[in-house]
Amino acid sequence: MFSGKFHNDRASYTLIKSTPAFWSILGDAWFHITQAPEADLPPRPAVWLFADLSGFIEGPEAAEPNNLTQIMEGVAIDPSLDHIEGTGLPLGTYGLALLSEHVVPILTNGLSTGMRVLAQGGDPGEMHTIAGTIWRTSNLLTVLLVKSPGNHNFTVALKSGLLRAVAASAHIPDFPPLQELLAHWADVVIPRHLLFHEVLRALGPALEDIADVVTADAFRQSAVYEKWSTFHSLAHEHLQILDSPFLDKTRALRACDNVECLTIQPKALFERCSGCSSFCYCCKACQVSDWRVGGHRNACQSCDAEAREFHVLTRDRAFFRALMNHDYQKSKITVLQDELVFRHTHPGEPYFLIYNYSIKGVVKIEPHLFGSNQSLSGFTWTDTVSRVARSKGRMRLDVLVFTADADGAGWLAIPFRRNTARVDIGLERLAIELRKNRDTWDMGYVTKVLAALALPEDLELETH
Ligand SMILES: [Zn+2]
Ligand SMILES: [Zn+2]
Protein backbone atom coordinates (compact mmCIF):
# COMPACT_ATOMS: atom_id res chain seq x y z
CA MET A 1 0.00 0.00 0.00
CA PHE A 2 2.66 2.53 1.01
CA SER A 3 5.96 1.11 -0.06
CA GLY A 4 5.77 0.59 -3.81
CA LYS A 5 4.37 3.98 -4.62
CA PHE A 6 6.57 6.17 -2.45
CA HIS A 7 9.79 4.23 -2.66
CA ASN A 8 9.91 5.00 -6.36
CA ASP A 9 9.77 8.70 -5.71
CA ARG A 10 12.75 9.28 -3.43
CA ALA A 11 12.29 13.01 -2.96
CA SER A 12 8.70 12.89 -1.73
CA TYR A 13 9.43 9.74 0.23
CA THR A 14 12.23 11.42 2.19
CA LEU A 15 10.23 14.59 2.63
CA ILE A 16 7.19 12.77 3.99
CA LYS A 17 9.28 10.70 6.36
CA SER A 18 11.01 13.72 7.82
CA THR A 19 7.71 15.44 8.64
CA PRO A 20 6.72 14.88 12.30
CA ALA A 21 3.04 15.60 11.54
CA PHE A 22 3.00 12.68 9.12
CA TRP A 23 4.11 10.28 11.82
CA SER A 24 1.66 11.73 14.26
CA ILE A 25 -1.28 11.18 11.88
CA LEU A 26 -0.09 7.72 10.89
CA GLY A 27 0.44 6.81 14.56
CA ASP A 28 -3.10 7.89 15.47
CA ALA A 29 -4.60 6.03 12.52
CA TRP A 30 -2.70 2.87 13.35
CA PHE A 31 -3.67 3.08 16.98
CA HIS A 32 -7.36 3.25 16.05
CA ILE A 33 -6.98 0.31 13.69
CA THR A 34 -5.43 -1.92 16.34
CA GLN A 35 -7.91 -0.84 19.00
CA ALA A 36 -10.89 -1.66 16.76
CA PRO A 37 -13.04 -4.59 17.85
CA GLU A 38 -11.76 -7.76 16.27
CA ALA A 39 -14.97 -8.21 14.32
CA ASP A 40 -14.23 -5.00 12.44
CA LEU A 41 -10.64 -5.84 11.68
CA PRO A 42 -9.40 -9.32 12.48
CA PRO A 43 -5.72 -9.40 13.53
CA ARG A 44 -4.62 -11.23 10.38
CA PRO A 45 -5.42 -8.47 7.87
CA ALA A 46 -4.10 -5.98 10.43
CA VAL A 47 -0.76 -7.73 10.59
CA TRP A 48 -0.38 -7.68 6.81
CA LEU A 49 -1.21 -4.01 6.82
CA PHE A 50 1.44 -3.62 9.46
CA ALA A 51 4.02 -5.57 7.45
CA ASP A 52 3.43 -3.12 4.63
CA LEU A 53 3.65 -0.17 6.98
CA SER A 54 6.84 -1.35 8.66
CA GLY A 55 8.40 -1.90 5.22
CA PHE A 56 7.62 1.74 4.54
CA ILE A 57 9.17 2.84 7.84
CA GLU A 58 12.31 0.88 7.10
CA GLY A 59 12.70 2.29 3.62
CA PRO A 60 13.90 0.64 0.42
CA GLU A 61 17.56 0.33 1.40
CA ALA A 62 16.93 -1.25 4.77
CA ALA A 63 19.29 -4.11 5.40
CA GLU A 64 18.65 -6.60 8.13
CA PRO A 65 21.19 -6.46 10.98
CA ASN A 66 22.93 -9.76 11.39
CA ASN A 67 22.16 -10.53 14.99
CA LEU A 68 21.01 -9.29 18.35
CA THR A 69 24.54 -8.55 19.59
CA GLN A 70 25.04 -6.25 16.65
CA ILE A 71 21.82 -4.43 17.47
CA MET A 72 22.57 -4.05 21.16
CA GLU A 73 26.24 -3.19 21.01
CA GLY A 74 26.95 -1.59 17.70
CA VAL A 75 23.96 0.55 16.97
CA ALA A 76 24.10 4.25 17.62
CA ILE A 77 21.75 6.82 16.23
CA ASP A 78 23.94 9.75 15.37
CA PRO A 79 22.46 12.33 13.01
CA SER A 80 25.97 13.37 11.98
CA LEU A 81 26.53 9.95 10.40
CA ASP A 82 25.00 9.04 7.08
CA HIS A 83 24.03 5.61 8.33
CA ILE A 84 23.03 3.96 11.55
CA GLU A 85 26.24 2.65 12.98
CA GLY A 86 26.58 -1.10 13.19
CA THR A 87 23.75 -1.86 10.81
CA GLY A 88 24.67 -0.16 7.58
CA LEU A 89 21.13 1.21 7.49
CA PRO A 90 20.98 4.58 5.72
CA LEU A 91 19.99 7.33 8.10
CA GLY A 92 18.37 9.59 5.54
CA THR A 93 15.35 7.45 4.85
CA TYR A 94 15.21 5.53 8.04
CA GLY A 95 16.88 7.32 10.93
CA LEU A 96 14.52 10.28 10.70
CA ALA A 97 11.65 7.93 11.26
CA LEU A 98 13.54 6.25 14.08
CA LEU A 99 14.05 9.55 15.80
CA SER A 100 10.34 10.21 15.86
CA GLU A 101 8.45 9.14 18.97
CA HIS A 102 5.33 8.64 16.82
CA VAL A 103 6.88 5.52 15.33
CA VAL A 104 6.97 3.85 18.76
CA PRO A 105 3.21 3.20 19.15
CA ILE A 106 2.99 2.00 15.54
CA LEU A 107 5.76 -0.53 16.07
CA THR A 108 4.56 -1.63 19.51
CA ASN A 109 0.99 -2.14 18.43
CA GLY A 110 2.08 -3.89 15.26
CA LEU A 111 4.25 -6.21 17.26
CA SER A 112 1.47 -7.06 19.65
CA THR A 113 -0.95 -7.76 16.78
CA GLY A 114 1.65 -9.89 15.02
CA MET A 115 2.23 -11.93 18.16
CA ARG A 116 -1.48 -12.64 18.46
CA VAL A 117 -1.57 -13.93 14.88
CA LEU A 118 1.52 -16.08 15.41
CA ALA A 119 -0.01 -17.55 18.56
CA GLN A 120 -3.08 -18.60 16.55
CA GLY A 121 -0.85 -20.60 14.21
CA GLY A 122 -1.54 -21.38 10.56
CA ASP A 123 0.20 -22.04 7.26
CA PRO A 124 3.95 -22.48 8.05
CA GLY A 125 5.05 -20.25 5.16
CA GLU A 126 2.77 -17.45 6.26
CA MET A 127 3.85 -17.87 9.88
CA HIS A 128 7.48 -17.64 8.88
CA THR A 129 6.90 -14.39 6.96
CA ILE A 130 5.03 -12.86 9.88
CA ALA A 131 7.74 -13.97 12.31
CA GLY A 132 10.30 -12.30 10.03
CA THR A 133 8.37 -9.03 10.05
CA ILE A 134 8.08 -9.18 13.82
CA TRP A 135 11.77 -9.88 14.19
CA ARG A 136 12.68 -6.84 12.10
CA THR A 137 10.15 -4.71 13.98
CA SER A 138 11.50 -5.87 17.33
CA ASN A 139 14.98 -4.84 16.22
CA LEU A 140 13.76 -1.40 15.26
CA LEU A 141 11.96 -1.01 18.54
CA THR A 142 14.97 -2.20 20.52
CA VAL A 143 17.05 0.54 18.92
CA LEU A 144 14.38 3.11 19.79
CA LEU A 145 14.14 1.95 23.40
CA VAL A 146 17.81 1.45 24.12
CA LYS A 147 19.49 4.19 22.16
CA SER A 148 17.19 7.16 22.55
CA PRO A 149 18.01 9.56 25.39
CA GLY A 150 15.71 9.71 28.39
CA ASN A 151 12.76 7.44 28.98
CA HIS A 152 10.07 8.95 26.83
CA ASN A 153 10.11 6.37 24.03
CA PHE A 154 9.95 3.61 26.58
CA THR A 155 6.98 5.19 28.32
CA VAL A 156 5.17 5.55 25.00
CA ALA A 157 5.90 1.89 24.23
CA LEU A 158 4.50 0.81 27.60
CA LYS A 159 1.32 2.77 26.95
CA SER A 160 0.99 1.17 23.52
CA GLY A 161 1.15 -2.42 24.68
CA LEU A 162 4.84 -3.34 24.92
CA LEU A 163 4.20 -5.71 27.83
CA ARG A 164 1.29 -7.30 25.98
CA ALA A 165 3.64 -8.05 23.10
CA VAL A 166 6.24 -9.60 25.39
CA ALA A 167 3.59 -11.66 27.19
CA ALA A 168 2.10 -12.84 23.88
CA SER A 169 5.52 -14.15 22.87
CA ALA A 170 5.03 -16.96 25.40
CA HIS A 171 2.46 -18.48 23.07
CA ILE A 172 4.25 -18.26 19.75
CA PRO A 173 5.66 -21.35 18.11
CA ASP A 174 9.37 -21.96 18.13
CA PHE A 175 11.25 -19.12 16.46
CA PRO A 176 14.59 -18.83 18.34
CA PRO A 177 15.85 -15.39 17.15
CA LEU A 178 12.60 -13.77 18.22
CA GLN A 179 12.54 -15.56 21.55
CA GLU A 180 16.15 -14.55 22.18
CA LEU A 181 15.25 -10.94 21.58
CA LEU A 182 12.17 -11.04 23.78
CA ALA A 183 14.06 -12.75 26.60
CA HIS A 184 16.60 -9.96 26.30
CA TRP A 185 13.81 -7.41 26.64
CA ALA A 186 12.46 -9.00 29.80
CA ASP A 187 15.96 -9.38 31.18
CA VAL A 188 17.70 -6.12 30.32
CA VAL A 189 15.82 -3.66 28.16
CA ILE A 190 12.79 -3.28 30.40
CA PRO A 191 14.40 -3.46 33.89
CA ARG A 192 16.93 -0.71 33.06
CA HIS A 193 14.09 1.79 32.93
CA LEU A 194 12.58 0.83 36.26
CA LEU A 195 14.27 3.64 38.16
CA PHE A 196 12.36 6.41 36.46
CA HIS A 197 9.19 8.08 37.57
CA GLU A 198 7.62 8.58 34.15
CA VAL A 199 8.16 4.92 33.25
CA LEU A 200 6.78 3.63 36.55
CA ARG A 201 3.63 5.72 36.16
CA ALA A 202 2.96 4.01 32.81
CA LEU A 203 4.05 0.62 34.08
CA GLY A 204 1.28 0.22 36.69
CA PRO A 205 -1.63 0.24 34.20
CA ALA A 206 0.42 -1.81 31.69
CA LEU A 207 0.91 -4.56 34.28
CA GLU A 208 -2.79 -4.56 35.17
CA ASP A 209 -3.60 -4.78 31.49
CA ILE A 210 -1.80 -8.11 31.10
CA ALA A 211 -2.65 -9.64 34.49
CA ASP A 212 -4.92 -12.23 32.84
CA VAL A 213 -2.24 -13.26 30.32
CA VAL A 214 0.65 -13.74 32.71
CA THR A 215 -1.29 -15.77 35.26
CA ALA A 216 -2.36 -18.31 32.64
CA ASP A 217 -0.74 -21.76 32.83
CA ALA A 218 0.70 -21.51 29.32
CA PHE A 219 2.64 -18.41 30.33
CA ARG A 220 3.98 -20.05 33.47
CA GLN A 221 5.40 -22.88 31.38
CA SER A 222 6.99 -20.60 28.79
CA ALA A 223 10.66 -19.80 28.35
CA VAL A 224 10.20 -16.14 29.26
CA TYR A 225 8.44 -16.86 32.56
CA GLU A 226 11.49 -16.95 34.84
CA LYS A 227 12.91 -13.66 33.58
CA TRP A 228 9.45 -12.21 33.59
CA SER A 229 8.79 -13.05 37.23
CA THR A 230 12.10 -11.48 38.33
CA PHE A 231 11.18 -8.35 36.42
CA HIS A 232 7.66 -8.40 37.79
CA SER A 233 8.67 -8.56 41.46
CA LEU A 234 11.17 -5.72 40.94
CA ALA A 235 8.52 -3.66 39.17
CA HIS A 236 6.05 -4.34 41.95
CA GLU A 237 8.53 -3.24 44.62
CA HIS A 238 9.29 -0.01 42.76
CA LEU A 239 5.61 0.75 42.25
CA GLN A 240 5.04 0.40 45.98
CA ILE A 241 7.85 2.87 46.67
CA LEU A 242 6.25 5.27 44.22
CA ASP A 243 3.13 5.29 46.39
CA SER A 244 4.92 5.24 49.75
CA PRO A 245 4.39 7.95 52.39
CA PHE A 246 8.18 8.39 52.45
CA LEU A 247 8.17 9.68 48.89
CA ASP A 248 5.54 12.28 49.80
CA LYS A 249 7.59 13.28 52.82
CA THR A 250 10.81 13.72 50.79
CA ARG A 251 8.86 15.74 48.29
CA ALA A 252 7.33 17.99 50.93
CA LEU A 253 10.35 18.58 53.17
CA ARG A 254 13.80 19.84 52.55
CA ALA A 255 17.03 20.51 54.44
CA CYS A 256 18.75 23.89 54.38
CA ASP A 257 21.65 23.84 51.90
CA ASN A 258 23.93 25.52 54.38
CA VAL A 259 25.54 22.30 55.66
CA GLU A 260 26.26 23.89 59.02
CA CYS A 261 22.53 24.41 59.55
CA LEU A 262 20.19 21.64 60.70
CA THR A 263 16.89 23.16 59.61
CA ILE A 264 14.43 20.77 57.96
CA GLN A 265 11.10 22.27 56.98
CA PRO A 266 8.46 22.40 54.22
CA LYS A 267 9.97 23.39 50.89
CA ALA A 268 7.74 26.45 50.53
CA LEU A 269 9.41 28.10 53.52
CA PHE A 270 12.82 28.24 51.87
CA GLU A 271 14.29 31.01 49.74
CA ARG A 272 15.92 29.78 46.54
CA CYS A 273 19.30 31.00 45.35
CA SER A 274 18.53 33.43 42.54
CA GLY A 275 21.66 32.39 40.64
CA CYS A 276 20.92 28.69 40.17
CA SER A 277 17.37 28.51 41.62
CA SER A 278 18.45 25.09 42.86
CA PHE A 279 19.99 25.64 46.31
CA CYS A 280 17.64 26.62 49.16
CA TYR A 281 18.26 28.45 52.43
CA CYS A 282 16.18 28.82 55.55
CA CYS A 283 17.33 32.39 56.18
CA LYS A 284 19.46 35.19 54.77
CA ALA A 285 22.31 34.40 57.20
CA CYS A 286 22.52 30.80 55.89
CA GLN A 287 22.61 31.99 52.30
CA VAL A 288 25.35 34.53 52.97
CA SER A 289 27.38 31.98 54.92
CA ASP A 290 27.10 29.32 52.20
CA TRP A 291 27.99 31.89 49.53
CA ARG A 292 31.06 33.22 51.34
CA VAL A 293 32.34 30.36 53.49
CA GLY A 294 30.60 27.38 51.91
CA GLY A 295 31.86 28.13 48.39
CA HIS A 296 28.50 28.28 46.65
CA ARG A 297 29.86 31.43 45.02
CA ASN A 298 32.00 29.15 42.82
CA ALA A 299 29.55 26.27 42.51
CA CYS A 300 26.38 28.22 41.74
CA GLN A 301 26.60 28.07 37.95
CA SER A 302 27.56 24.44 37.59
CA CYS A 303 25.28 22.73 40.10
CA ASP A 304 22.76 20.38 38.56
CA ALA A 305 24.40 20.59 35.14
CA GLU A 306 25.33 16.93 35.31
CA ALA A 307 21.84 15.87 36.31
CA ARG A 308 20.39 17.88 33.41
CA GLU A 309 22.78 16.23 31.03
CA PHE A 310 21.41 12.82 32.00
CA HIS A 311 17.77 13.90 31.87
CA VAL A 312 17.24 13.41 35.58
CA LEU A 313 14.14 15.30 36.65
CA THR A 314 13.34 16.54 40.15
CA ARG A 315 10.65 13.89 40.57
CA ASP A 316 13.15 11.21 39.50
CA ARG A 317 15.51 12.45 42.20
CA ALA A 318 12.70 12.19 44.77
CA PHE A 319 12.07 8.62 43.65
CA PHE A 320 15.79 7.74 43.77
CA ARG A 321 15.90 9.09 47.32
CA ALA A 322 12.89 7.00 48.34
CA LEU A 323 14.30 3.92 46.60
CA MET A 324 17.67 4.32 48.31
CA ASN A 325 15.97 4.77 51.66
CA HIS A 326 13.90 1.64 51.03
CA ASP A 327 16.99 -0.39 50.12
CA TYR A 328 18.96 1.01 53.04
CA GLN A 329 16.21 0.17 55.55
CA LYS A 330 15.94 -3.31 54.06
CA SER A 331 19.60 -4.15 54.65
CA LYS A 332 20.49 -1.62 57.33
CA ILE A 333 22.20 -4.02 59.77
CA THR A 334 24.37 -5.46 57.00
CA VAL A 335 25.28 -1.98 55.77
CA LEU A 336 26.12 -0.84 59.31
CA GLN A 337 28.27 -3.95 59.78
CA ASP A 338 30.14 -3.19 56.54
CA GLU A 339 30.61 0.40 57.69
CA LEU A 340 31.94 -0.78 61.03
CA VAL A 341 34.50 -3.06 59.41
CA PHE A 342 35.42 -0.23 57.04
CA ARG A 343 35.96 2.17 59.96
CA HIS A 344 38.05 -0.49 61.64
CA THR A 345 40.41 -0.80 58.67
CA HIS A 346 40.39 2.95 57.83
CA PRO A 347 40.31 4.65 61.25
CA GLY A 348 39.41 8.35 61.13
CA GLU A 349 39.15 8.49 57.32
CA PRO A 350 36.00 10.01 55.85
CA TYR A 351 33.98 7.81 53.54
CA PHE A 352 30.65 7.71 51.76
CA LEU A 353 28.22 5.02 50.65
CA ILE A 354 27.77 4.04 47.04
CA TYR A 355 24.42 2.58 46.06
CA ASN A 356 25.31 0.76 42.91
CA TYR A 357 22.24 -0.08 40.85
CA SER A 358 22.99 -2.66 38.23
CA ILE A 359 21.21 -2.76 34.93
CA LYS A 360 18.80 -5.30 36.42
CA GLY A 361 17.85 -3.01 39.30
CA VAL A 362 19.80 -4.96 41.92
CA VAL A 363 21.61 -2.73 44.41
CA LYS A 364 24.94 -3.14 46.17
CA ILE A 365 25.58 -0.72 49.05
CA GLU A 366 29.27 -0.24 49.86
CA PRO A 367 31.46 2.21 51.79
CA HIS A 368 34.16 4.01 49.74
CA LEU A 369 36.94 6.38 50.73
CA PHE A 370 36.77 9.81 49.16
CA GLY A 371 39.12 9.84 46.21
CA SER A 372 39.07 6.06 45.83
CA ASN A 373 36.71 6.05 42.89
CA GLN A 374 38.28 7.50 39.76
CA SER A 375 34.92 7.87 38.06
CA LEU A 376 33.83 10.40 40.67
CA SER A 377 35.66 13.59 39.83
CA GLY A 378 35.06 17.02 38.38
CA PHE A 379 33.97 20.27 39.92
CA THR A 380 30.55 19.20 41.22
CA TRP A 381 32.07 16.25 43.01
CA THR A 382 34.87 18.32 44.55
CA ASP A 383 32.27 20.81 45.76
CA THR A 384 30.14 18.02 47.27
CA VAL A 385 33.15 16.54 49.08
CA SER A 386 34.09 19.90 50.57
CA ARG A 387 30.50 20.38 51.76
CA VAL A 388 30.62 17.02 53.54
CA ALA A 389 33.89 17.96 55.25
CA ARG A 390 32.47 21.33 56.31
CA SER A 391 29.34 19.77 57.78
CA LYS A 392 31.41 18.18 60.57
CA GLY A 393 29.32 15.01 60.62
CA ARG A 394 25.94 16.65 60.04
CA MET A 395 25.96 15.57 56.43
CA ARG A 396 26.58 12.02 55.35
CA LEU A 397 26.88 11.33 51.68
CA ASP A 398 25.13 8.63 49.67
CA VAL A 399 25.86 8.36 45.98
CA LEU A 400 23.51 6.65 43.61
CA VAL A 401 25.36 5.05 40.75
CA PHE A 402 23.21 3.82 37.94
CA THR A 403 24.67 1.87 35.07
CA ALA A 404 22.68 2.41 31.92
CA ASP A 405 24.28 -0.24 29.69
CA ALA A 406 25.21 -3.87 30.17
CA ASP A 407 28.85 -3.06 29.36
CA GLY A 408 28.99 -0.43 32.13
CA ALA A 409 28.99 2.57 29.79
CA GLY A 410 26.72 5.52 30.33
CA TRP A 411 26.65 5.49 34.10
CA LEU A 412 25.28 8.24 36.24
CA ALA A 413 26.18 9.24 39.81
CA ILE A 414 24.00 11.49 41.94
CA PRO A 415 24.97 12.52 45.46
CA PHE A 416 22.39 12.58 48.23
CA ARG A 417 22.73 13.86 51.76
CA ARG A 418 21.69 12.03 54.88
CA ASN A 419 21.02 13.85 58.09
CA THR A 420 21.96 11.10 60.50
CA ALA A 421 24.53 12.40 62.95
CA ARG A 422 23.12 10.02 65.58
CA VAL A 423 24.07 6.90 63.59
CA ASP A 424 27.43 8.41 62.73
CA ILE A 425 28.30 9.11 66.38
CA GLY A 426 27.07 5.65 67.48
CA LEU A 427 29.12 3.87 64.83
CA GLU A 428 32.26 5.84 65.66
CA ARG A 429 31.90 5.07 69.38
CA LEU A 430 31.52 1.37 68.67
CA ALA A 431 34.48 1.39 66.27
CA ILE A 432 36.71 3.03 68.91
CA GLU A 433 35.53 0.55 71.53
CA LEU A 434 36.26 -2.39 69.23
CA ARG A 435 39.65 -1.01 68.24
CA LYS A 436 40.80 -1.50 71.85
CA ASN A 437 40.36 -5.25 71.61
CA ARG A 438 41.65 -5.64 68.10
CA ASP A 439 41.39 -9.38 67.63
CA THR A 440 38.20 -10.51 69.26
CA TRP A 441 34.85 -8.97 68.53
CA ASP A 442 31.93 -10.08 70.63
CA MET A 443 29.56 -10.42 67.69
CA GLY A 444 26.51 -10.77 69.95
CA TYR A 445 27.32 -7.39 71.50
CA VAL A 446 28.11 -5.76 68.12
CA THR A 447 24.84 -6.94 66.61
CA LYS A 448 22.92 -5.63 69.63
CA VAL A 449 24.46 -2.15 69.38
CA LEU A 450 23.92 -2.02 65.61
CA ALA A 451 20.30 -3.10 66.02
CA ALA A 452 19.76 -0.24 68.48
CA LEU A 453 21.30 2.20 65.98
CA ALA A 454 19.19 0.81 63.17
CA LEU A 455 15.91 1.03 65.03
CA PRO A 456 14.42 4.45 64.31
CA GLU A 457 13.29 5.18 60.78
CA ASP A 458 15.45 8.13 59.89
CA LEU A 459 13.98 10.76 57.69
CA GLU A 460 16.75 11.19 55.21
CA LEU A 461 16.71 14.16 52.93
CA GLU A 462 18.42 14.99 49.76
CA THR A 463 20.54 17.92 48.89
CA HIS A 464 22.93 18.65 46.08
ZN1 LIG B 1 19.76 27.29 57.38
ZN1 LIG C 1 23.13 29.18 43.43
TrEMBL record:
Record has Membrane as a keyword: yes
The answer to whether UniProt assigns keyword Kinase to this entry is yes
Membrane topology, from the record: Multi-pass membrane protein
Query: In which broad location class does this protein mainly occur, judging by the first location in its UniProt entry?
Result: membrane
GO molecular function terms listed in the Swiss-Prot or TrEMBL record: phytol kinase activity; zinc ion binding
Query: Under which name does UniProt file this protein?
Result: phytol kinase
List the pathway annotation: Cofactor biosynthesis; tocopherol biosynthesis
| Enzyme class name | transferase
Localized where?
A: Membrane; Plastid, Chloroplast
Catalytic activity, EC: 2.7.1.182
Task: Please list the residue ranges annotated as the MYND-type domain.
Answer: 258-300
Q: Which residues cross the membrane?
A: none
What family name appears in the similarity comment? Belongs to the polyprenol kinase family.
What keywords are assigned to this protein?
Chloroplast, Kinase, Membrane, Metal-binding, Plastid, Transferase, Transit peptide, Transmembrane, Transmembrane helix, Zinc, Zinc-finger
Q: List, alphabetically, the GO terms of the cellular component aspect.
A: membrane
Specify the superkingdom.
Eukaryota
